[in-house]
Amino acid sequence: MTLRGKTAIIGAADTEVGVIKHMGATQLCVDAILRALADAGIDKGSVDGLVTCNSMAEPYMYHAEAIAEYLQIFPRYCVSVGAGGGTTFTALHQAASAIASGICHTVVIAMADSLRSGLSRERALAMQSSTGHAQFERPYGATVPAYYALIAQAHMHQFGTTSEQLAAVAVSARKHAERNPAAQMRTPITIEDVLNSRLIADPLHLLDCSLVSDGGAAVIMTSSERARDFRQPPVYLLGVGEGHNHEHISQAQNLTTSAAVESGQRAYKMAGVGPRDIDFAGIYDCFTPVVLIELEDLGFCLKGEGGAFVAAGNIEPGGLLPVNTHGGLLSHCHSGNPGSMFALTEAIFQLRGQANTRQVTKADIALVHGQGGIMSSHCTIILGRESGQ
Amino acid sequence: MNEMLTRNIPPITAETAEYWASCARHELQIQRCLECGTCQFFPRIMCTACSGKSLRWVRASGRGQVKSFTIVRRAVSEAYAAEVPYVVALVELEEGPTMMSNVVVGNVDEIRIGMPLEVVFDDWPEGVSIPKFKPRMV
Question: Which residues in chain A have their CB less than 8 angstroms from residue B132's CB?
Fold first, then answer.
C-alpha cells in the first residue's frame, strides 16, 4: 500500500506569531485548531483524530488528551508525538497512515508553544542546558547553536563553504519575510549585517540563528475521497519519507550528510517526482548551515555546493527554488517544536493560490522538510494540487 | 546553591560507573568488543558493529584529533560564563570512536580541524573528573 494521493489537507491556519503575551501555549494550540476548523468550514464534532506535540511552556503528561478535553472533543485516535522540529511532518505521516488504514477519517494536527513569553529566563536556560547527552555532552557546556556550529565548521572545512554563504540564507529568509505581514522580523538585512552581528558559537553569528517566538498552527487532514466536499481546494499528500540517524550529534556517522538523503528519496519515490519537479520548498532553517545541507541532501544541488547555490540567489523570492516564502524560522517565527508547522501551512496557502503578494508564480508541487534534534530525525513531505489518482 | 551556578554534572549510572571511576584515576577508558575487536563510545551492553555482548573496558591512548569544533561565545549557563570563550569539539580518538569534549587551549583562535590532541582531566569540586583535551605536540 502506498500513501500517495490517499489523503489531503482541507483546512490550515496559523495563530498570531511573534511575541504573544495575551495567550498561553494551550490557548494558542486551541486557537490554531478553531481557526483551521473555520478555514475548512467544519464543526469540531466531525473531528475523530487529533495529533499534537507537547509544549515546553505548558507541558501535559498526555498533551493531545489535554487539548481534546479542553475542546470537549472525543476522538477515536489521539496521540502526542515527540520528534523535535521534525515533529510536524512525522505527525502528518502518522495522521495520513491512520486515515488510509481506516482508523479515523478527519484528523487535526495542531501544535503551539510560547517559548518567548511563556518561559522564565531560568527555565529557558535550564532547557538549553538539558539539550545533549547528560553524561557525555552536557558537562562540556555546549549550547544549541554550538551543536549546529559543529556541523557548520565541518561543512566549511570539507567543502570550502564561507560565512558569507551561510549569511545568504538569513538574507533570503528576510527578503521573503518582507512580503509577509505576519512575520516577526521584516526589516531588511544584508550579508554584512549578518557578519557584523555578534558571534554566538563560531562560525554562527546571531543572525545565523532562528528567532524565539510564540505561536502555533493547525491543519486538518482527511481522505482524498472526502476532500472535495469542503470549502477550500484540497492539497494532496503525494509523498512522505522519514530518515533517522542518531539522537546525539557526537554519535552522528557523518556531520555533513544527513538522513534527509533517505527521507527525501523515500518521499520522491512515493510521489513519483524528483527535485526538478518541485516548484518551491519549505526547508527547516533553525540555523543557516542546516539549509545548505538539506538542499544538498534533498537533491536540489550537489553535495558541497549548497553555499554557492544559495549565494546565487536561487532560494530568494523569484529564484529557481523559492525556499521558506513565509520567512522561515529565521524571520517568520520559531516557537519550538511547532516551528515547521508554518512551512507546512505556507505550502498549503501557496498551493491554493492564497499567498497574496508573496504568491509564487508556479505552485503545483511543493516539498517541505523538517528535522529534529541535532540533524537527528528527518521527515520529507511532498504536496500537490492534484491527487495523481 | 543557586541552580544557575551549578555546572552540568554527569548523572552516573550502573552502565557508566566504570568509565567515570577510570576518569577519577585520570585514565580514559572505552569499550572494546572481544568478538570483533571494534572499540566504541558511549558505553553500551552490546557491540554496535557485531551485536556481540562480550565487551571489555580498555584504556584508550588518550590521543586523538579535532573532527570539528566551535568556540562558544555565549555560555550555556552562568556556571560556564567565566570560561567564555571556550572550545567545544568533537574529538576522534586514535581507536576510532568520537567523543565530545572541551579543548583547553591558551588562544581559542589556534584551534583547527585535524589538530592532534591528548587527554587531560579537569577535577571538578563536585567530585567528578571530566576528560578534556589539549593540543599535542607532534
Answer: 140
